[in-house]
Amino acid sequence: MSQQINLFNPRFERQKHQISARAASQCLGLLFVGLLVLSVYGQRKVAGLEQQESAVKADLAQREARRDKALRDFPPRHKDPVVAQQLAAAEAQQKLLQDATGILGRGELGNIQGYASYFRALAQARVDGVWLTGLHIAGAGNDIGLEGRALHASLLPAYISRLGQQDVFKGKTFASLDIGPPDEVAVNAPAADGKAVKAAPYVVFSLQSTRAAAEAAASAPAPQAGGQR
Q1: Element (H, E) at 83
Q2: Does one domain contain both 62 and 129?
Q3: Cβ contacts of residue 93 below 8 Å, gap of 6+?
Q4: Is 145 exposed, middle or buried (0-12, 13-18, 19+ CB in 10 A)?
Q5: Domain interval for residue 137
Q6: What is the mean pLDDT of residues 15-32?
Q7: What is the pLDDT, as a whole number, of residue 92?
Q8: Of 77, 94, 112, 132, which has the fewest beta carbons less than 10 angstroms from its beta carbon?
Q9: Is 14 inside any structural domain?
């Protein structure tokens, strides 16, 4: 006994999709419209860029025209050697003035503030029985020398202490203090009647800030009685 079995199923057969002519024409129409829109947009964009380019070129041309006119009206000048020399001399002089100002500010050439403060300090440090006959201040006040007289040598420590209390003398030291009798030649010189003058009742002193100044003061001639220098 035999039986035929049909295993064919139409659903498993490859289906053929067919587009109608109307649908195809619609698709082509839409594609054409899209391309047309893109073309118009591109043309407008290019036209805008071309206008911008033209405006930039026109502005550039105006700027170049103004530059050329300025060059014609104000041609560049060549450097004048005389002016260059004068400028170099002025710069050199300015540098010299700056260096000089720095030196003066540092006090290398002396005391630019004056010496009035020293005279005020000496007046305020006055001690009865002590008086000055000579004052020496060199440079910026680093070299100071005092010469004077005192009724008694015991008055000099108090005088030196009073000096040290003054602001202008604070921090300064003295290298030497010489105390002695007056110059014998001046004191014991014969009077008009031929008699010798009695010795003066005072001592002379020399107060120097440096040893070199002390030696110079010792070698200098002593002042006459009552004299000042």
Answers
A1: helix 81-106
A2: no
A3: none
A4: buried
A5: 116-219
A6: 75
A7: 87
A8: 77
A9: no
